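Q&A log
Question type: sequence-to-structure
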Amino acid sequence: MAPTVRRAARWAVASVETIDIDSDDALVRDYGLQVPVVLANGEAIAEGIVGLATLWTRIMRRRFFG
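Response status: OK
Response body:
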């Protein structure tokens, strides 16, 4: 999923930060069964395996429509 996330972020001119949830008990509790999770400004926009076009669309929708 990481290459898809990076490519969608490049297309959307957005940055990517990778976080290992296993290093934080709160993150494991919140997202453990949903990994990978893509957040935009702290809000989940994708969970699990998502295609490139879908992810890019969600990033852009979040950017323009909040």
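Response note: The first strand starts at residue 37 and ends at 40.
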